[in-house]
Amino acid sequence: MNYILTFLISMVPIVELRGGIPFGIGMGLEWWHAVIICMIGNMLPVPIIFFFARKVLEWGADKPVIGKFFTWCLEKGHHGGEKLKKAAGKGMFWALFLFVGIPLPGTGAWTGTLAASLLDLDFKKSIVAVMCGVVLAAAIMTILSLLGVAAFTAVN
What is the domain range of residue 123? Predict the structure, then answer.
């Protein structure tokens, strides 16, 4: 059951593997099991986000109940994407890689993929950048989780 929960947590937007890896390790999974499960769970929605999220958000932007939220998502994704594009210049691959890979609030595979889609970036290059970013984020979160788990389980 912990494997399934770890997998599902890593698929949740914003939380992603940043929450899945500490959860899995904290629940007693081998660290490398948690990492593999979370990386797969985090990457699974990426192609769907790239090809369909923009269309769904644009479709829902003028709807009564969901319109404000969908418009906010589009504006946030577009603003974040333009900011990333401006800062990156020709190094968009590296900017997307670091954006996804450095585990800060509001960054990650979901947001990076949505920004890539809104900026009409190349699918293959974007997916590779996001995948590399997920590997970096997994490494950072694994180290932090192992250090944190070790600190909390230390016996005096």
Answer: 44-153
